[in-house]
Fold:
Amino acid sequence: MHSAPPYCPEVNPIERFWKEVKKFLKNQVFDSLDFLRRILRNILARFTQEDIASITGYDFILEALSVPGL
Structure:
């Protein structure tokens, strides 16, 4: 197994997902951590498996993962 460089959002699919999540959170102030958690749960519940697959599915990563021995 190969590791990604320490900070390389281009090859880290979760970075693209969090970018989408943060769109819902920008310019907001939360009164408490519990309120933020509730809002975040609601945001995450909006995403379908298809949404997540389309956001995080990098063709070049999926192709590389299909190479035998990689």
About this structure: The mean pLDDT is 85. Helices lie at 13-25, 33-46, 49-56, 59-65. The chain has one domain: 11-65.
